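Supplementary Methods S3. Input chains for the assembly prediction are listed below.
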Amino acid sequence: MKISVDHPRCEGHGLCADQAPDVFSLDDEAELTYHFEGTDVPDEHRPAARAAVNACPVAALRVLS
Amino acid sequence: MTARRSVLIVGESLAGITAARHLRALGHTGPLTIIGAEEHGAYSRPPLSKAVLKDPAADHTLGLVLDGLDAEVIRSPAVTADTRGRTVTTADGRQVDYDALIVATGADARRLAAPGQRGELVLRTLDDARLLRARLADAGSAIVLGAGFLGMEVASACVARGIPVTVVDTDQPLERILGGHLSAVITARAAEYGIRFVQATGFATLTGDPVRGVALPDGTELTADLVVTCAGEVPCVDWLAGTGLADRLGVGIDHACATTVPGVFAAGDVTYFRGDGTLPDRRAPFWSNAVAQGRTAAASVLGLPSPGPPQDDYFWTEVAGLTLKIVGRLPLLGAATTVQGSVTDGRALLTWGHADGTSTVVAYGLRKPVGALRALAAPSSPPAP
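Predicted structure tokens for the full assembly:
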């Protein structure tokens, strides 16, 4: 499973990191880091990662596969 | 209670899907069915009044993810429920039995048109947003009825398109939600941005058929190419008629998202928190509450303690080209306790301290994640020894 992040659309709400802190994190200026850029989200983090994709209030996250 | 019980979620919504995901995460291995009213499935609504009004490309990015839920999804609206027989019937005639039910049918736009009056525009669904976007493309003027979050977002979208817009409400913009101080700040900014505001002395009515204007109680009539009603929402509870689950405010829940009917729970915009003697009944139809309540409802269905409170006081809006993010209790009385930065410059961090040690924190035009705002809003830690 891969996730795409639309960085220009991201407004730094950080609700993704609430759902999946092992997959997403934000610094104090709300810059988002996606920890599995260019690779697959490990199995154990997939349910949380899907919840995070849905929780994004600006629809900046998408599951690619 | 066994893990093989069947759970039915009515409402393919953020609250409903969040509940489904948490049911599975918490170990529910029994049958799980989701009944949705949206032909194309669940999608995210906050962008409808923001990105979608600006750009058709956003339409295709809104779908919510159902992967990995191992749920049967029925896309036909629920029309009746029998909570004694524990069954729900859909518009296409299917009857779905359940052991536990989660009501997550959300809310519809509140409409103000008179019976038979055509052409009222609202903004609640993707179809609403597409229609409004098309109408914005050739409108020379606009009226927005309602100065809450949604009304001010729509008005901001009009200005961004160069369309003169007038917002009509009985209260100042966002005053009911945010309180007088922040409302005054935002009203001034909105005026500078080009949003005209008319304060009505009572309820305004839509005029024309199709709708072309608004009549104010003092006899004034305003007209425009485009009139958008942004007057709040109505919980989707028609299908619950006769169950005693719902009233005018929606489906009443407690802090476990339990309703007054055994085996029935509810989450999201369809709900209100039942008053408990000290607090009145209150609706809190916000995105982050739908997530929090979906999670709590899932835990309660399984007889587990909730992993967190059923409420997450986080709100945000875009108004007059500026993003506001707010954590904490509302409305805010009086001026901010502390101000960092400059409201005039459109970049400030404002806090309002409360008697219980918590604060309400407002990031005004500042990019701050919710985690940082929650940390600031939490009760101040005792001084280090």
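The helical segments of chain A are 15-19, 46-55. The CA atoms of residues 32 and 55 of chain A lie 15 Å apart.
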